[in-house]
Amino acid sequence: MVIVYVLIAVVVVILIAMASMYNGLKILRNRVENAWSQIDVQLKRRYDLIPNLVETVKGYAAHEKDTLERVIQARNMAISAKGVKEQGEAENMLTGALKSIFALAESYPNLKANENFMMLQEELAGTEGKIAFARQFHNDCVMKYQTKKELFPTNIVAGMFSFPNKEYFEIEAPAERQAPKVSFTGA
Description:
Helices cover 80% and strands 0% of the residues.
């Protein structure tokens, strides 16, 4: 009779351990999805600001049509991107297009001094900071989830219940990995 109680106790302990591992994986997976949602919120804010920025620039630099169209095209591609990898690539393209529009402003002093342009530029800069923070938070959550999923004995539970791998939000463009050059020589 004692052996039966010991076996029942062992089975109960194993079931409790498996439930704990399963719940831990579910919590981490939900955190990854929440972190992705936070990126999505900031990207939506960025997408909403871009048409206003383009319209402001159009007023001063109407003949720079190619640059403005590239920004809108990059925005539309980013909006329709699916999945972490495709979204990352589209966002990198949009970031490059936005850099070109800010570089364009250097050629138009009246545009650069325009209050609406300066406000949009500041809002976009603030949004970029929030996006960077959200990406970092997402990647931290993915790292915790992946680590827990791959460690023994949780990897057994993850395999039994088919917990999928999650992707990191990575920089694909080599130019984005370069640190900006600062020079105090010359003009």
